């Protein structure tokens, strides 16, 4: 049923609004993104379900972890059932960010790993790089929080893994010419 709606003008509007909210989140305008997505969900709930992961990210960005967790669970279930792989690959790093915010380190790592693994064979290198970058951010948070890996990796080991992932992400971002992402990756590498 969703696939039939995808060619419609309202679907195009919802998709555009979700992309604008995504940009708002990347540019630290979480309140604007949340207002935009709540309005979209009020007006176009059925069409907006495909982009519930953006709404979950909005709630995470404004500090509502409980709502973010609930929405990402619904989003992942819907995306896995519908086989919208591109949206799933976008949603998985958000799930990882939400799990990391709750210090659920192993779950976060699994989400990032799945996102990178799914994105790698797709003609969507930006998604892989984004997953790698956010994975590195999570490992850095984990190291600083003292959340050692089950394999007994030290804080230094976690930081080295984070740097390796950032290096991989940076190579992809540079190939794509994604300047803001290059700046963010370089900034994280220099911390």
Explain this structure.
By secondary structure, the chain is mainly alpha-helical. It has 11 helices and no strands. It has helices at residues 2-5, 9-26, 30-43, 45-48, 52-61, 65-82, 85-101, 105-119, 125-145, 155-176, 179-189. The longest helix is centred in the C-terminal third of the chain and has 22 residues, at 155-176. The termini are far apart. The mean pLDDT is 91.
Termini separation comes to 47 Å
Class from helix and strand fractions: mainly alpha
Low-confidence stretches: none
- Reading the helices and strands in chain order gives HHHHHHHHHHH
Q: Any idea what the radius of gyration is?
A: 17 Å
Based on DSSP secondary structure assignment, what is the total number of beta strands? 0
Residue share in helices?
over 70%
Counting DSSP H or I runs of 4 or more residues, the number of helices is 11
Mean pLDDT: 91
Biggest β-sheet strands, sense, barrel? none
Shape: globular
Proportion of strand residues = under 5%
